[in-house]
Specification:
It is a single chain. The protein is α+β, with helices and mostly antiparallel strands. It has two domains: 33 residues; 105 residues, Alpha-Beta Plaits, CATH 3.30.70. The protein contains six helices and five strands; from the N terminus they run ααβαββαββαα. The strands form two sheets. A three-stranded antiparallel beta sheet has the order 2-3-5. A two-stranded antiparallel ribbon has the order 1-4. A hairpin with a 6-residue loop joins strand 2 and strand 3. The longest helix is centred in the N-terminal third of the chain and has 28 residues. It is elongated, with a radius of gyration of 25 Å. It starts with a helix and ends in a 13-residue tail after the last helix. 18% of the residues are buried.
Length: 175
Amino acid sequence: MRDWFRNVYVAAVTVLHTLGVGLRWWFRTYDPKVKTFTERYEYPEFPLEVAPRFRGFHRYDLTSCIACERCARDCPAACISVSKERATGRKGFQVTSYTIDYGKCMFCGICTENCPVDCIFMGSSYDLSCYSRDGCIVDFTRLPVEVAWGRATLNPTAVAQSKTVAQAVHGGPGG
């Protein structure tokens, strides 16, 4: 019984000592000029400023893609899938589906480095919030044309509305 009381006493002294050290450092380093995160960044009203080299959600130009699947082969996370079919009346392929699973993507940017026609690049948008993992899968061929071609930012509303489209919006380059 004596050992039990000694263990309780040692535990209480250890916790009080740890709290004392934490409070001491908090008073030493407290600066009233430094605001909290929510005071510095009013996120829903004002978006965060991103660095020039920030790697956000991809921008994809469907009109210049030649469907070589180089980005899908080079992706270390295997999150990109490209479906293509032979173009009728001309040589080459036409993209039927270009899907990126952002639940797997590491935002490493390797897919953008090896694209021979520079049709995919890293964007500056950082918010693609969704309630399910299905919302993380983005098919760029089913997005509105200005979003799919990289002229507008990728947003959760456009992705959610693209899931209801039965077929692709654009048939690919020249189509």
